[in-house]
Design a protein that fits this description.
With 171 residues, the chain is α+β, with helices and mostly antiparallel strands. It has helices at residues 2-20, 39-48, 50-61, 103-118, 124-139, and strands at residues 29-36, 65-69, 74-79, 82-90, 96-101, 142-146, 152-159, 162-170.
């Protein structure tokens, strides 16, 4: 009986901690990323910008892509040493995680496209396509579908007529 009395406070504390955790807490942590880009996109990139094609090829074969979801609702994505941040939330049905870029990150993305255009890294037709897709790419919410086992987040983005997928798997 005295053992039960000794364990009772620990059991009560554990139950309180479990009861106080939020559904979002199960997704807090670090994830490793991979990218699926259709071969047609790579071929188009080779036509418009060989440098960009090499970047896309590297993104597929050596993604060096990481996501951290923090408990305070902030996320950080790091790709090749460059970080982007914003806020994240879990949907009510717990089937998706939504990432929203910070205003600074949105502006940085727009500035990068302008720099690419100014430096001639993209031609007029590629520039037109980038401009038409840019606003939705940097300002829309990015909804990642959660796998059944809750270990993988997948973003599927339609860009022009192609679907590009980014997967993050819990590290």
């Amino acid at each position: 009986m005295s053992r039960i009395r000794l364990l009772l406070p620990a059991i009560v504390a554990a139950l309180l901690l479990i009861g106080c955790s939020k559904p979002e807490d199960q997704f807090v942590g670090k994830y490793t990323g991979s990218v699926e880009i259709p071969e047609e996109v790579v071929n188009l990139a080779k036509q418009f910008s060989p440098d960009q094609a090499a970047t896309i090829d590297d993104a597929i074969n050596n993604p060096n892509l990481f996501l951290e979801l923090k408990k305070d609702g902030i996320y950080t994505i790091t790709s090749n040493g460059t970080s982007t941040d914003g806020t994240w939330s879990l949907s009510e049905d717990q089937k998706s995680v939504t990432l929203v870029l910070s205003e600074e990150a949105q502006q940085n993305a727009k500035d990068q496209v302008e720099t690419m255009k100014a430096e001639g890294d993209v031609d007029d037709s590629a520039s037109s396509m980038l401009n038409s897709q840019l606003d939705s790419l940097v300002s829309d919410k990015m909804n990642y579908t959660i796998s059944e086992d809750k270990t993988k987040l997948t973003l599927a983005r339609q860009i022009a007529m192609f679907e590009i997928k980014i997967h993050f798997t819990r590290s």
